Amino acid sequence: MVDDQSWLSPATGAEVELNTGLLAEILRDYRRTHGINQADLAQLLSMDQSYISKIETGQREVRDVHMLLRISQQLGIRPARLGLSDDLLRPVASPSTSSLVGESDAIEANQEAWRRTRRRLNRSRGNLARAAAGLYARELRIGSLPFMVAPGWIPDRPVPLGQIELVWNSDAVGAEVTGTEPEAWSVLPLRAPGRRFSRYTSAIRYLDAPKLFENRPSYRLLDAELGSTTGRLEFGLATYFDKLDLSEAVAHELADARDGTGTPPSWNELPLRALVGDPFDLRRRFVMPAVETLTLRRRGPGDATFLLHWRDPAKVATAAGIYGLIPAGEFQPSSVASWDRSNDFSLWRGMIREFSEELLGEPERDGSSGEPLDYENWPLYRSLERGREQGRVRPYCLGVGLDTLTLTATFLTVVVFDADVFDPLFGNTVQINAEGELVTAADSTSVSEGLPFTAATVERLVTREPMASPGACILRQAWEHRSALLG
Questions:
Q1: CB 487 within 8 A of CB 305
Q2: Rounded to whole angstroms, how far apart are CA atoms 395 and 413?
Q3: Longest distance between any two alpha carbons in the chain, whole Å
């Protein structure tokens, strides 16, 4: 049950005048525009459906500024539409225009220190992930990689994607730890005297915004069981920023605690991470998994190349300045509409949308047309389905695990293409996309050839290059199972 009494009062002494009648109409309009019901909206806002109903019927007024700001951020609605000033989310003015020069100087210094730590975080994610790995039991990790798995999360062999059941949980389920607790205050910079940003994503938006940064509904992982031949995954609904508010905050906290000597931080220095507790408790926090895919272009038995991507720090909010596999993206519906939530509820369909966007440079299919995506009549989807039926396009799941630095989850997947199927579809792969650029071998004749899938290449990426831990884990697992994948 959501408590509408604020536990954090505004620091200013002035009363905030609110037009509380606006919210009910705005929520109803939002639902009509996006084709969702009260239960869907409750899940997006992490509230009870009965609470939403009371707001919309006028039985409950929301006068808490922080709750209104959270609704504004979650739904992408300007604060002004809720009767608040847009300036409530912005940093204070610079010292040159402020009458409170001393206070503004302190805020500027605080914000700049936050930016420095965030830059250090983005420069050193690999090293920081290895430092974070030392905080957790050794037996949870995959080899020497800073990547953790729970029992039943990594199958003994690649599982064909079609043999994994996805189950929908329609009940609104909240989270105990969200990144807004007092334990998070050390990583939330000041935006006004005595007032911090209420969410880590708000700080990113106004102090260090990348080109791609928008809140989207995302599938929330609630349970995972992956056997050697089948699997079962249970999901609910939350938002992308729900994920970042905690995952990027715990990473920032560790970057801030780690000193220049390389000494690992202690749990006493990491109150927010300690509050998370068991990282595999999927009900305690919001876990919205990404899907990262090793794209193998099979030229013959045991002979393949693969695609590698460098993530440009100027373009992305997370996993920046490092190598990753491609395609990779959040597992999320293309819009908040109920039909998209069910129409897009497929790992394979989500992966195909990412192939389209990241390899071919096609526009993102974000549901803005107001109609469900017609997969069956989409030429790329039809071609890949035909290849799959013929056994010449073979998607697998290698498991799911958590990055030790951010505690974010990633589904580890592989798609094996016969070269004569891959080349007509992706021969015109773009080298530079919205998130970075593709890496090729020196003797490659086209971007789509990628890198040779060999022991030397895999070893170099896994052990010596700055690579995201999910991608490194996929490469390691895929190389171990190369006979099954490429035979």
A1: no
A2: 7
A3: 73
3-state secondary structure of 233: strand
Q: Which amino acid is at 32?
A: R
Distances (CA, A) of 279 to 148, 182, 292, 427: 9, 19, 20, 41
Q: What are phi and psi of 196, to 5 degrees?
A: -95, 160
Tell me the per-residue pLDDT of 25-36, one tens digit each, with 9 for 90 and over. Answer: 888 888 887 778
What type of residue is 400? V
Q: How far is CA 197 from CA 105, 186, 246, 429, in A?
A: 17, 11, 14, 40
What single-letter amino acid sits at 427?
A: G
Q: Are 321 and 387 in contact (CB under 8 A)?
A: no
Which residue is listed with tokens 């007024």? Answer: 61
3-state secondary structure of 265: coil
* Residues in contact with 156: Cβ distance below 8 Å, sequence separation at least 6, in sequence order: 228
Give the dihedral sign, CA 430/308/480/407. Answer: negative
Residue 46 has pLDDT above 80, yes or no: no
**Residue count (the chain):** 487
Half-sphere exposure of 75 (CA within 13 A, CB side): 28
The one-letter code for the residue type at 107 is I
What pLDDT was estimated at residue 100? Answer: 46
Question: Strand, helix or coil at 389?
Answer: helix
Nearest-angstrom CA–CA distance, 438 and 323:
9
Contact 48, 38 (CB under 8 A): no
Question: Can you give the C-alpha Rg of the chain in angstroms?
Answer: 23
CB atoms under 10 Å from CB of 372, counted, come to 19
pTM: 0.79
Angstrom distance (rounded) from CA 20 to CA 41? 19
Q: Beta strands of 112-250 (E only): which ranges?
A: 147-148, 159-160, 164-168, 190-192, 195-196, 217-226, 231-239
Which SS3 state, helix, strand or coil, does residue 4 take? coil
Residue 297 DSSP label: E
- How do beta strands 323-325 and 328-330 pair? unpaired
Q: Which residue has the tokens 């809140």?
A: 215
Most confident among 176-190, 256-270, 311-325, 421-435 (mean pLDDT):
176-190
Task: Determine the Cα–Cα distance for residues 163 and 368; give it in Å rounded to an integer.
Answer: 31
User: Does pLDDT of 216 surpass 50?
Assistant: yes
How many CB atoms sit inside 10 A of residue 2's CB? 14
Contact between 414 and 298 (Cβ < 8 Å): no
Contact 55, 67 (CB under 8 A): no
